[in-house]
Amino acid sequence: MAATGCGDISTDGANAAAGSGAAASEAAVVSAPLEGRPDITEFCGDKEITVALADGFGGNAWRKIVKRQFEKEAAKCPNITKTIYTNANSDPQKYASDINGLVAQGVDAIITFDDFGPAALPTLRKATKAGVVVVPYIANPGGTPGEDYEVFVAEDTDQVGKEWASWAEKALGGKGTVAMLGGTPGNPLSTAFLDGYKANAAPSITLAQDEPLNTDWTVAGMQQAAAGMMTRYPDTGLILTDFGAGIQSLARAYDAAGQELVPVAATASTNEVGCAWDQLKKDHPGFELLSVEGTTNVSVVALRKAVAAAQGIENTEASMVQIPVFIDTLNGKMPVCDPDLPADADMSADLTPEEMREIFAK
Fold first, then answer.
1. Three-state SS at 277
2. Do 286 and 168 have their domain in common?
């Protein structure tokens, strides 16, 4: 499962974050849309269609933002006459039932975050064989694109690793040791990010371990993993992580050890990080942050692919999505805070501040 979709973090409001200073803005959402991509209106076609978003889990801010972006993008096509949303609440049987139900309703296209991996592949394959266009995004179901489903749309983990490597070299002055804090044991996403880093890392920078240390993508797991990392690799001068939402927990681990937090290259930070930035920087003057973000926007690419296929129109845009650098404190790109939004809100979504607040006012 992708860290961006499944991280465990408080949703009691960003203003509850430790040190609620807003470094970049008191109440602003700065979007990071995917540049150079076509508009969905190029693929709307003429046939009236129904599209659906099937979530394996929909209970956090990231998923709610994706749902709003899905609805907003679909509304640009007047011949998309209906949009449907389903949430399996982490129940694989309900996920299968949801998708089977969508097929029975006659939907033309489904985009889906498959939280259950290859275990759900038979369900996706069945929907595809029934003539429905199925496009999974971010969470890889396995199988064969073009046979089991239309196409898999994913973030470019190699590009993220390249950004990490370049920034790490700069942050460390070309020499030092880095460690990787990943997600659940053996998950392919954390490994892919680390492989992307390895392929681009400077030879003068040492990698503490060959595999990611496991945080389970939870704040408690982050603190525990960081404590173990400091014991095993005391010379670590920079941390890589695909769980940017856990940065405050990482800081707590350093506080407990009486050490200053080192620079962090991440993905998937949150509103909570922005609202805590002033206090984090005050407590840890040497702390700097890079975060590569915009993962909610990957779902919009998936919808374009699905609509184009349902209309029989070719869409040649890349299914591997490069997401931009959203935070780089070494170069003046500061974290963003909106105290009116939940702590786990993804501030890089391509939505206006008003649209973001509408999501969580319900």
1. helix
2. yes
Residue 178, SS3 per DSSP = strand
Q: Which residues contact 210 (CB under 8 A, 6 or more apart)?
A: none
Bridging pattern class, strands 325-328 and 320-321 = unpaired
Please check whether residues 147 and 249 belong to one and the same domain. Answer: no
The answer to whether residue 176 sits within a structural domain is yes
Q: How far apart are CA 60 and CA 11, in angstroms?
A: 8
Sign of CA dihedral 130, 303, 347, 172: positive
The tally of domains found in the chain comes to 2
C-beta separation of 335 from 313 below 8 A: no
Q: What is the pLDDT along the chain (362 residues), one digit of tens a residue?
A: 444 454 444 333 333 333 334 433 433 444 556 777 899 999 999 999 999 999 998 888 888 999 999 999 999 999 999 999 999 998 999 999 999 999 999 999 999 999 888 999 999 999 999 999 999 998 889 999 999 999 999 999 999 999 999 999 999 999 999 999 999 887 778 998 999 999 999 999 999 999 999 998 888 999 999 999 999 999 999 999 999 989 999 999 999 999 999 999 999 899 999 999 999 999 999 999 999 999 899 999 999 999 999 999 999 999 999 989 999 999 999 999 999 888 888 899 889 888 998 998 86
Give the CATH number, domain containing residue 188: 3.40.50.2300
d(CA 180, CA 339): 30
Q: Is residue 23 part of a domain?
A: no
Whether 232 and 309 map to the same domain: the answer is no
